[in-house]
């Protein structure tokens, strides 16, 4: 047996452990920043959000319809994509800017419309818009949001704002909201078309998350020890929904009587006539409907299954993307949402043909985890993930991304590269 040399030993000095004892978070950070500094992914923000937010609002964001198959499959679709990186490329400078709907975006993604945002955190839509403005990306206000069209515009006048609406039973209300958005400088209109009726969202039914919320005793008790959430809610202005009008009782416009299940493609003509800016149709789930939306005057479409919150068992939007881009990409800007959780997902979607990506849950987890600072953290995480993924792929601009950088992974048999 070899005569192995012994380790040279000495008595430890007091300073020897110092390099290994650096405290997480950094000097000078407040408690919210320290909490957020421990989050390195959107999933980390989700875990923090779950602890800090009552179950009703959290599951409203986190859940889907029925068995949540659509939601899970949309996420799985991104996991099934493989990247095909190039090597030995100069990637010291990466340009993540792009243009969408006639305007600039510093990143290939924006913050999409979400309902009831102040229920997640009292800072609500204003915080999301300010964070989006700092990131240089657009933000879409939902017509079932919790901030008025005018108040959001006043919160960050220089930000790029989009407005999302439905074709309501009260068509005149829809047109009044569209006119107000136009008057306050919103530069694109999104019409969501996949909600003839609300999906069967079982988590919401079990926690009382309706419009307005009807909390059960169990849900109330669950919320009772989230002291900060309650204090934020009770010490800030009561929220109203974006669609509400002064002097009109909220009971007239409950969601149960809000959506119009008689709407057809012909109804889009009235919207097109009322809005002279970029018009986007959100909720497209088949190639044929994509073409009909373009024929009806859409400048853009969003392939979306509503984050899995409407019809269960639908196809993942990512799977529809290549054929829809092939069919209508020359005539319209094809965007995508649903299932996007990482910057790598954003890059995969762009490489698969999307012009732009909209996120919802990703920034809401940040909002629940830490208010406006949490949305900033979400944007930072996604930005660094996009940049790193592009560098590792060997590309330096969004325009360079293409189908040669992704392929579908098969567990059954190897797929040829070329």
Automatic annotation (TrEMBL):
Superkingdom of this protein's organism: Bacteria
SUPFAM superfamilies, per database record: FMN-linked oxidoreductases
Record-linked CDD domains: alpha_hydroxyacid_oxid_FMN
Annotated InterPro entries: Aldolase_TIM (IPR013785), Alpha-hydoxy_acid_DH_FMN (IPR012133), FMN-dep_DH (IPR000262), FMN_HAD (IPR037396), FMN_hydac_DH_AS (IPR008259)
Cofactor: FMN
Active site residues per record: 306 (proton acceptor)
UniProt keyword annotation of Ribosomal protein present: no
Family to which this protein belongs: Belongs to the FMN-dependent alpha-hydroxy acid dehydrogenase family.
Protein known as: Alpha-hydroxy-acid oxidizing protein
Species of provenance: Streptomyces antnestii
């Amino acid at each position: 047996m070899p005569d192995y040399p012994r380790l040279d030993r000495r008595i430890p000095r007091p300073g020897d452990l110092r390099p290994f004892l650096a405290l997480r978070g950094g000097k000078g950070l407040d408690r919210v920043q320290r909490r957020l500094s421990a989050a390195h992914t959107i999933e980390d923000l989700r875990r923090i959000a779950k602890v800090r937010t009552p179950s009703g609002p959290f599951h409203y964001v986190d859940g889907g319809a029925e068995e949540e198959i659509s939601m899970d499959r949309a996420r799985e679709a991104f996991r099934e994509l493989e990247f095909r990186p190039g090597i030995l490329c100069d990637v010291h400078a990466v340009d993540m800017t792009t243009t969408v709907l006639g305007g600039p975006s510093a990143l290939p993604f924006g913050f999409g419309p979400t309902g009831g945002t102040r229920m997640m955190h009292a800072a609500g839509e204003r915080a999301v818009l300010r964070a989006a403005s700092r990131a240089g990306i657009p933000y879409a206000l939902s017509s079932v949001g919790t901030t008025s069209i005018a108040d959001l515009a006043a919160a960050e006048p220089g930000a790029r704002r989009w407005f999302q609406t439905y074709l309501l039973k009260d068509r005149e209300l829809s047109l009044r909201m569209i006119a107000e958005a136009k008057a306050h400088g919103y530069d694109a209109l999104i019409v969501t078309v996949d909600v003839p009726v609300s999906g069967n969202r079982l988590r919401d039914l079990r926690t009382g998350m309706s419009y307005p919320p009807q909390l059960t005793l169990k849900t109330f008790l669950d919320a009772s020890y989230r002291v900060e959430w309650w204090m934020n809610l009770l010490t800030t202005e009561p929220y109203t929904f974006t669609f509400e009008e002064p002097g009109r009782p909220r009971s007239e416009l409950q969601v149960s009587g809000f959506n119009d299940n008689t709407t057809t493609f012909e109804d889009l003509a009235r919207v097109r006539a009322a809005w002279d800016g970029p018009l986007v149709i959100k909720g497209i789930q088949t190639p044929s409907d994509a073409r009909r939306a373009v024929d009806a005057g859409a400048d853009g479409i969003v392939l979306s299954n509503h984050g899995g919150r409407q019809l269960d068992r639908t196809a993942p939007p990512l799977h529809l993307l290549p054929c829809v881009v092939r069919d209508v990409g020359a005539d319209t800007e094809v965007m995508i949402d649903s299932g996007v959780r990482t910057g790598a997902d954003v890059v995969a979607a762009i490489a698969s043909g999307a012009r732009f990506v909209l996120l919802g849950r990703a920034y809401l987890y940040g909002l629940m985890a830490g208010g406006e600072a949490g949305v900033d953290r979400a944007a930072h995480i996604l930005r660094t993930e996009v940049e790193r993924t592009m560098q590792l792929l060997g590309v330096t601009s969004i325009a360079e991304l293409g189908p040669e950088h992704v392929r579908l992974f098969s567990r059954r048999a190897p797929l040829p590269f070329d």
